[in-house]
What we know:
By secondary structure, the protein is an alpha/beta fold. The protein contains ten helices and five strands; from the N terminus they run E-H-E-H-H-H-H-H-E-H-E-H-H-E-H. Cytidine-5'-monophosphate binds at residues 12, 34-35, 38-39, 74, 77-78, 81, 108-110, 159, 163.
Amino acid sequence: MLGFTVAIDGPAAAGKGTVGRAVAAHFGFAHLDTGLLYRAVGAKVLEGMTAEEAALTLQADDLENDQLRTNAVAEAASRAAAIPAVRAALVDFQHSFAMRAGGAVLDGRDIGTVICPDAPVKLFITATPEVRAQRRFAELSAKGAEVTLEGVLADVQARDARDSTRAEAPLKPAEDAELMDTSTMDIETAVARAIELVAARR
Ligand code: C5P
């Protein structure tokens, strides 16, 4: 029997990961941040591999790399993610994860539209680019990265534009996704609403 899947999509730094982890912890589901798959590919591209080869040879260990959170890797991930062969190479892993017994939460850009179109719960989490840039700036500065708010905003906007306009699996809400704007919502409220939705459909 298929597992119960919660699909969470949205742009960078909207709160997908935080909501996804909290929902998974609450219900005892497994959680996969699918952005890590693309980031792991992006990191290998920066080391000189082609994106297609990186996607085809990706190992679970590659997701543990603590350099995956940098802006350079995010940018390389977004470029690689526009290549259909890269996306195709990552589908089976995501399907297997979604179908595991015991339930799973997957967050990314195309989970509700392409990877798990039959997921019983789909959330699309957004926030304004300014709010998201502010969050990402705070996160990166706390880690000691030398970034400016303007620079982070420009990166976030460039990545949103590329992710939303690519031909293959563009970032967009599924027709039946519940929209959640976290621009003015605190994270506890967003988590509580997500948990309510999952509880109602379980
Ligand atoms: O979510 P995160 O910011 O880690 O994702 C990095 C990049 O990976 C995104 O900008 C996007 O281009 C790509 N991605 C994707 N599909 C997903 C998850 C991430 O195209 N399901």
